[in-house]
Amino acid sequence: MLSQEELVSSVCEIYNNLSNLNSLNPSEEVNMIFTNLVKLCVSPCPIDVTKLPDQVQEMRFKLIKLCGVAEGLMESHYSGILGSFDSPLDHLYLFPYHTNYIKLGQLEFNILSQHYTHVPKQIAFIGSGPLPLTSIVLASNHLQNTTFHNYDIDASAISLASHLVSANADLSRRLVFHTADVMSVTDALKEYEVVFLAALVLVGMEKESKIEVIAHLAKHMAPGAILMMRSAHGAKAFLYPVIDVADLVGFEVMSVYHPTDEVSNSVVISRKR
C-alpha cells in the first residue's frame, strides 16, 4: 500500500507531465500517462484530500480539469471510431473503460433499486457527452422499458451520441437526445423520476456554480424524484470532483457509496424533498 506522501508525489509528477503536453487528444503517450494515473488513484491509500495543503489542493483542481478535458476528447475520439461501424453498439468493447461502465452501471442500478421501488418510465441524464455509455448500459442491461433523455450543451456531442444508437431499433426509440444547457431546462425536469448529473458537468465549476445547478434541479424536479450524482473518495478524488452532501439543499441524501474496487466514482443518491 502506498503512503500518502508517495501517492501525492507520484500524482504531482504525473500532473507536471500532463501540463507539459501539447495536446490531450488520445495518443500512445497520453493514454499511458492516464492509465498510470488511474492505476495509482484506484490503489488503496488512506488519504483525505480535504486535509492536503493548499498547494496540493490547487494542483488537484487543475488535474481534475485536465482529466475532464482528456475524458471528453477520448469519448469523442472513440465515439467517432464506433460510429464508423454498421452496428456501433456491437463494438463498445473497443472503448478502454467499457468494463468500468458496465460495473458502474450495475452498481448504480443496485443502489437505485434499493431506494426506488418501482421501475422508472423516464430518466434524464444531464451531461451525457458524445459516448453516452451509462444510458446505453442501463437501457440495455437493467432498465429495458425505460426511456432515457440525454442532455448535453454541445451539439457535436449530441450528434455523435445519437448516431451510435441510430442503427439499434430498440435503443434508438428509448434514447432521446437534446442539445441544451441544464440551466435552461425547466418544465421538462418535472417529467423525470430519476435524474443523473454527470461528473464532467461539474468539472472546472466553481463551488457557487455547482450550488446554482443543484438549486436549479431542486426548483424544477418533481417532489420525490431521485437525483443520482457521481463523486469521488480517497485517492480517486484526484480524478473527479468530490460532492459535498451539505450542498444538496432541497434534497434528502439517502446513501453515499464508495466502491473499493477499480471503479473510479462514488455514487450519491438523494431524493427531492
UniProtKB/TrEMBL annotation:
Synthesizes nicotianamine, a polyamine which serves as a sensor for the physiological iron status within the plant, and/or might be involved in the transport of iron. Keywords: S-adenosyl-L-methionine, Transferase. GO terms for molecular function: nicotianamine synthase activity. PROSITE patterns: NAS. Belongs to the nicotianamine synthase (NAS)-like family. It holds the Pfam family NAS. SUPFAM superfamilies: S-adenosyl-L-methionine-dependent methyltransferases (SSF53335). It catalyses: 3 S-adenosyl-L-methionine = nicotianamine + 3 S-methyl-5'-thioadenosine + 3 H(+). Coiled coil: none annotated. Signal peptide: none annotated. This is Nicotianamine synthase. GO terms for biological process: nicotianamine biosynthetic process. Its EC number is 2.5.1.43. InterPro entries: Nicotian_synth (IPR004298), SAM-dependent_MTases_sf (IPR029063). It comes from Sedum alfredii.
